[in-house]
Amino acid sequence: MVRVSNNLVGILNIITLVISIPIIGGGIWLSKQADTECERFLEKPVIALGVFIMLVSLAGLIGSCCRVSCLLWLYLVVMFLLIVLIFCFTIFAFVVTNKGAGQALSDRGYKEYRLGDYSNWLQKRVNNHWGRIQSCLQDSKICKTLIDDGSSTKVEDFYKKHLSALQSGCCKPSNDCNFTYVSPTNWKKNSTSSLGNPDCNLWSNDPNVLCYSCESCKAGLLDNIKSDWKRVAVLNIIFLVFLIVVYSVGCCAFRNNRRDNSYKRYP
């Protein structure tokens, strides 16, 4: 008798198997087309993810449709570990992104960001890998629109701009510096300028340097990470519910396999 749970597990794994093919293809494409360190950094995780999904899908598909209990058991073990891992990561993501936010400034359309406002764990991870991250940010040309604006942007218009966290942290000096505005990425030190903030000494009008080495740039990145992780955590909750349902159906299919094997053994 055809078991509904076995068929359902089979259908779900056919879908995930098909999904794994473009993921692997995307990783291979990145390895061939990558021009920057950022893109080369992504290729191996993408290929590994695709291969992992393919192998797990094959185990679930063969185990459910061909009634191979050992493969279905392996599939269920991997699914259980995945559920535990996603649950732990979701809790962790909410904890480490609980701290930190941009500071609103009066008469400014943008916010300023301080590295010390964010979780110590995130700060350490960013500081340890800043060389690679900085290279990626420079390759991404996040400041290009501000550089292209040049002197055509008046100071009052610039102060009203809604800059992203990365643009605010990496493409202009800190408000604490009191530099004189020339253009969005060109500022002059004067008699009222303050160098109390270490970022003020790191600022350069060179479009390849700007404030990419500043603490504010790291803070802008962390604000982006915080927002992205919160979105991922919410999606993880939805995915977790889906995995639990699939795992439950898989358990039913495994039980059906064992029952069918018992009938065959003892006719």
UniProtKB/TrEMBL annotation:
Q: Where in the cell is it found?
A: Membrane
Q: Membrane topology type, per the record?
A: Multi-pass membrane protein
Q: Which UniProt keywords apply?
A: Membrane, Transmembrane, Transmembrane helix
Pfam families listed in its UniProt record: Tetraspanin (PF00335)
Broad class of the protein's primary localization: membrane
Q: Where are the transmembrane segments?
A: 7-30, 46-65, 72-96, 232-254
Q: What is this protein called?
A: Tetraspanin-8
* Annotated source species: Datura stramonium (Jimsonweed)
